């Protein structure tokens, strides 16, 4: 059973992308009733007791054994027909690629271009093109049908206890429904309380939704592209992140080949891709913020809109008048985009062109249905700076911009901090919901202390779990390398794992009707000593199995009624099973029963026997006393 | 600067104990005014700007370059004179060591006994011996003086902002004082709201306190001792855990040589040692719970009291009548001690002898000042079982037992869960404080989800941070191997790190007057590009430095005004410094200043120059574009 996985792990060492299902899982598809053309992917985990368990699966075709992956061809454009069928868009000859799009890189370092090209689409004047405009027009898009079915995973399974779950949780005003209908998705989008990041030029994306009445999502940042790295290596970073559960990926690439790298990533990405356009714009002006202007920024927006980027981080809330508010901070401005715009404003003594041109930016993004991720350029970078005037002044401006973007028909989410101590987290969500009309919140952590560089995936998972519970719709991961250096592939996985934990913990606490089903499934497997099921139901079957096998390697132990922590005689779960059997008899007898010693001793004897067969050897291997 | 550390790391590979200070730190001692005999150890971190920063330091003499460590001799009995001076105790010929104390191990596997022996002490009838009895008598013990000074670290430094901090935090009823006086320590102990685990037969321990009006503490579990492992290896596990910040250590050893192993650990431990006596008692009856009785348990308590164990986990709240309440749980009883007692009760159809003999247990523990850690044998082992009737019924009984122990003069803390979703955590603290008269709470996590075996140090750090904030006094760590196998030394460090983060985050959120000083120090170092200071002020200087050096290895980069995440042109912190300088001029000028381009450009030019010198090469090494 380990074989296929170890093979995959060797592949991972090469620049090829990681393919194949997780151990014990297979990709299945499910279509909502009456919509056979909407094929929603799920990951089905096979259990040793014959049951199966389905989980939400953002990993795309890469984990589907029935799909042949060819990164040079890109993924199938699953949404193309839907977009065409809706109409209201036109195909046109896109902006020509210029040398500066790739940082003016010479032939020597020029990366191989993505061969399969498609003429870009854009919305026609007066016609609804964004999911927000369509929703307002009362239209239920195929994306909405897809998302409703996707979000409903496990709800049927949990239907009986659904109400109990909901009553049980504390949602702080969120209203997670027992069942998600396409109409509910439409209404949440129309209301601006959820977004569907889905550029019409990224038809390869599998529709997903970000909003506090849906499953809590996580984002993984990749990029920081390399001159010497192959495009496949960049694509692999994205594939690796979604394999472990990233719902969206931000490409923060800079430097040479930035356009080409992004093209390869988007054409091969089944999840929405976000970017920070100011990074590329800065490259086009030799990295000097002072040289930035509207023309180069506008050119960059159109370039990326045509490529299919699904959401843009735009730091339009960093106003000239707010910059001095950061002067007394311990860590000043820690957002790259924020500091770039601050430098621009100060050097020109002018209001931010992103703020002044915000309407024009909306007009461009609307035509392609690129969602806003309004950046918090003044977010706190330390505990001392949390919730200060600079941060909240910008948040108020983001609220003002949200209304403008909505009027223009654009979808909007709001970025949040950062570094915030536990007792100051909740007010961030409350103020964001109030100022921004409940537009989805998208936070980085927050880190609840500054003192643990190299462990900031943990410091931030604490804050992320809490802020997700309070109503944040998407959590942007932080890796162990934060503050120290570039994350490598192991850091990416560590970051994704910490955030899958935080997001699921948030769904549990909010009372999501289906969230606890997975906890119950894995705990039942644990109690019944179904080790393989416990591994396969976990977030990371490979590591769970590896940790177990480190002390009890033998296949036989996958059936053992104990583990190396306690050994057979101490095994509380085994004893509990006897307690349960006993209690059952009690209930039958309606009082203290009268088991014979023989009856009681039976379970232990079986265990001890099993242990004598193999125990000693195992524990000597592990320097562990046979007596345990 | 790396040299001494790398040498230590080689030592770590051998069975020797890890010695020597952390990089950039040295052990210093400080005596409270008028008490030169009370030498409180601190870790002083030297900063590159000439300042120093002191942190609380439970690592003992092992990190003191001026102390020669000899594990065969044990640590100096720093408290012996204090205990003798108080009087009220007698030395006597202790219980003789029996073969069954070491699991009846044959000569072949018998571990080397600890050579230095001391006749045990016990309290005299009618004389105050426990810190609780002494506190009630109005006596301020040397331990209390020591603890007050130890807890005050950083408070003078933070004095100016102390009030601000307190107002700033949310303590949920805790009352952390601006300054800790010996009288405050005495009153908290007399009130039962804090305990000082300090067996009179463990004079080697450096006094510490557990209570919600003091710094949040963490415990690390070691043990699961090995036939083939040397005693030094067991001692090393303890030394390694306290090196990274464990405040107490529980020895959960079982099997052979259990008595001898514990002796070596206690004689070499500067932190309180806790145990679960039922584990050894079970060994004495061949591992069969059914054979347990009061006599063997009593014999084990006395054995361990004489050795110097500082606190006992006793599952006296697992009553016969509660066991059937676990029958419908998903994971039943997951506490080892709890399941052992449940099996005993069921098999004998009798009330727990721990419950019925509780008064006798108190009388024994009082004589040696062993503190109670009333075990939660019915704690939930899964999200589904959290906060159920079985758990709370036991908690109510623990409250009843707390009053009895207090009446007998014993110090008490209460153990808590376990597996609890975020929204069900707070009520655990509220109910514990109410039922148990504010006796200190000591929780295991809790884990906020069941779905991440191999990452349970993270799932539980989320719950631990929150429950610590709500008022839990000590957090028992969980390692990545939880549910899967035996933790190794890396797991121990990972667990301690995750819990140091949770405990500090809790102190910050409670508004501890000195907690934020360390966050401010490290963030200031970060902002000022004092890389070495950022590493040395962090919880794990070795790993922080290693992560940084992975991308920017050169010594020169320790001075660089950027890191590999953004590179020089994107460095937000550098730009912020310019913003700050600019804002300063603004304030001077009382309006928009008029910096020349030359002025503004200066900082960037310096950076770019520094970057040209070494940047490209670095980034090519790291497959990172020189342009960044």
Features:
24 helices, three-stranded antiparallel β-sheet, 10% strand, eight-stranded parallel barrel, disordered N terminus, homodimer, alpha/beta, globular
Task: Note down, in words, how this protein is organized.
The structure is a homodimer of 628-residue chains. The first copy, chain A, has 628 residues and is of the alpha/beta class. Among the domains of chain A are: 99-131 and 215-507, Radical SAM ThiC family, central domain (TIM Barrel), CATH 3.20.20.540; 529-559, no CATH class; 566-627, no CATH class. In chain A, 43% of the residues lie in helices and 10% in strands. In chain A, the strands form 4 sheets. In chain A, strands 8-9-10-11-12-13-14-15 form an 8-stranded parallel beta barrel, surrounded by 6 helices. In chain A, helix 4 packs across helix 6 (182-190), helix 9 packs across helix 10 and helix 17 (456-470) runs parallel beside helix 18 (489-510). In chain A, 63% of the residues are buried. Residues 1-15 and 590-628 of chain A have low confidence and may be disordered. At the A-B interface, helix 9, helix 12, helix 17, helix 18 and helix 19 of A face helix 9, helix 12, helix 17, helix 18 and helix 19 of B.
């Amino acid at each position: 059973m380990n074989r296929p996985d170890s093979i995959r792990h060797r592949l991972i060492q090469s620049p090829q992308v990681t393919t194949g299902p997780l151990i014990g899982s297979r990709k299945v598809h499910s279509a909502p009733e009456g919509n056979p053309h909407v094929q929603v992917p799920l990951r089905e985990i096979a259990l040793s007791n014959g049951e199966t368990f389905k989980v939400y699966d953002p990993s795309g075709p890469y984990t589907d054994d029935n799909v042949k992956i060819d990164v040079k061809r890109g993924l199938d454009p699953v949404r193309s027909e839907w977009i065409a069928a809706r109409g209201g868009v036109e195909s046109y000859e896109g902006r020509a690629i210029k040398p500066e799009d790739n940082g003016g890189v010479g032939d020597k370092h020029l990366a191989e271009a993505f061969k399969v090209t498609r003429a870009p689409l854009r919305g026609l004047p007066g016609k609804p093109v964004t999911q927000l405009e369509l929703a307002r027009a009362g239209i239920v898009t195929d994306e909405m049908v897809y998302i409703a079915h996707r979000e409903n995973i496990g709800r049927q399974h949990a239907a009986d206890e659904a109400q109990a779950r909901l009553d049980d949780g504390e949602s702080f005003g969120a209203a997670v429904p027992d069942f998600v209908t396409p109409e509910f998705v439409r209404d949440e989008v129309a209301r601006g309380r959820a977004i569907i990041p889905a550029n019409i030029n990224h038809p390869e994306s599998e529709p997903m939704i970000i909003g506090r009445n849906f499953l809590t999502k996580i984002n993984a940042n990749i990029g920081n592209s390399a001159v010497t790295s192959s495009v496949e290596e960049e694509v692999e970073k994205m594939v690796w992140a979604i394999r472990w559960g990233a719902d969206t990926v931000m490409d923060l690439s800079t430097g040479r080949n930035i356009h080409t790298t992004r093209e390869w990533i988007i054409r091969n990405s089944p999840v929405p891709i976000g970017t920070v356009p100011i990074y590329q714009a800065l490259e086009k002006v030799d990295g000097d913020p002072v040289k930035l202007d509207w023309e180069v920024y506008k050119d960059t927006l159109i370039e990326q809109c045509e490529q299919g980027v699904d959401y843009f981080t735009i730091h339009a809330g960093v106003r000239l008048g707010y910059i001095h508010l950061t002067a007394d901070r311990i860590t000043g401005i820690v957002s790259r985009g924020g500091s770039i715009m601050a430098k621009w404003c100060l050097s020109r003594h002018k209001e931010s062109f992103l703020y002044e041109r915000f309407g024009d930016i909306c007009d461009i993004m609307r035509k392609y249905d690129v969602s806003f991720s309004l950046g918090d350029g003044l977010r706190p970078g330390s505990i001392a700076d949390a919730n200060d005037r600079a941060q909240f002044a910008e948040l108020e401006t983001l609220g003002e911009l949200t209304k403008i973007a909505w009027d223009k028909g654009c979808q909007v989410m709001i970025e949040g901090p950062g570094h915030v101590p536990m007792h100051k987290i909740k007010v961030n969500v409350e103020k964001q919901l109030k100022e921004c009309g409940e537009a989805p919140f998208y936070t980085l952590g927050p880190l609840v202390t500054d003192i643990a560089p190299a462990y900031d995936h943990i410091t931030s998972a604490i804050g992320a779990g809490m802020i997700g519970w309070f109503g944040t719709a998407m959590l942007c991961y932080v890796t162990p390398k934060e503050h120290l250096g570039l994350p490598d592939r192991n850091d990416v996985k560590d970051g994704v794992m910490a955030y899958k934990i935080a997001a699921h913990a948030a769904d549990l606490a909010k009372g999501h009707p289906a969230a606890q089903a997975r906890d119950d499934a894995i705990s039942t497997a644990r109690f019944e000593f179904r080790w393989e099921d416990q591994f396969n139901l976990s977030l990371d079957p490979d590591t769970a199995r590896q940790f177990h096998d480190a002390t009890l390697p033998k296949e036989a132990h996958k059936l053992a009624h104990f583990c190396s922590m306690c050994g057979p005689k101490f095994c509380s779960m085994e004893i509990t099973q006897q307690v349960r059997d006993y209690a059952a008899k009690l209930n039958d007898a309606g009082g203290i029963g009268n088991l014979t010693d023989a009856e009681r001793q039976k379970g232990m004897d079986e265990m001890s026997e099993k242990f004598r067969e193999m125990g000693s050897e195992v524990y000597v291997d592990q320097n562990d006393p046979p007596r345990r």
